[in-house]
Amino acid sequence: MRRHSVIHTPKTSDYQKLTEIWESSVRATHDFLPDSYIERLRNLVLTHYLDTVMLICTKDPHQRITGFAGVAAGKVEMLFIDPQHRGQGLGRQLLRYAVEHLNADELEVNEQNPQALGFYLKQGFEVIGRTEHDGLGQPYPLLHMRLRSSVGAGLSDPTKSHSTEMGPGLTAPTQVQ
Fold first, then answer.
1. Which residue, 55, 72, 95, 132, shows the most beta carbons closer than 10 Å to its own?
2. Is 35 exposed, middle or buried (0-12, 13-18, 19+ CB in 10 A)?
3. Which range has the worst mean pLDDT, 13-17, 42-46, 65-69, 159-163?
4. H-only helix segments in the chain
5. Which region ranges are annotated with the description Disordered (predicted)?
């Protein structure tokens, strides 16, 4: 379990790989989404959503992207880890960077994704609200979460939490959860 200690900024030429990671992560964790909806969202991720956020990523020693996050207006809009690299601390590393360097303190997560919800709760986020539908109006409830103010510094301490990396999808208006 080698930790990827450097956060990178992906290029537009990386969008195809980011979309592949998005899809494999969603298929591994969002079993409540039908294939037709995943295909619809995949196209939106590739052609629209990635351009709407500040992207950061992790890479393995061979410089292959292993996970990524997107942040806009203080909100983590997406965080996905390649399923082959889960459990290595990458999600936590990306989230920590988003909080500490991109001032992200809010996110949304699918209520039907208990692994992601558990991850964010362990990282110091709390549920502050709920909607019945995702950003595309589909019946996939979202939980609105905010970082507890006393947790920001603790998020950077690797001894504070060990958990499975998961992530939310995109939030309104670019909902993918």
1. 95
2. exposed
3. 159-163
4. 15-29, 35-47, 90-101, 114-122
5. 153-177
Nearest-angstrom CA–CA distance, 117 and 96: 16
Structure pTM?
A: 0.83
- Judge whether 46 and 3 are in contact, CB under 8 Å: no
* Domain edges within the chain: 12-156
Cβ atoms within 10 Å of 139's Cβ, excluding its own: 7
Q: What's the pLDDT tens digit per position in 75-132?
A: 999 999 999 999 999 999 999 999 999 999 999 999 999 999 999 999 999 999 999 9
- Whether 67 and 88 have beta carbons less than 8 Å apart is answered as no
Q: What CATH architecture applies to the domain 12-156?
A: 3-Layer(aba) Sandwich (3.40)
SS3 of residue 23 by DSSP: helix
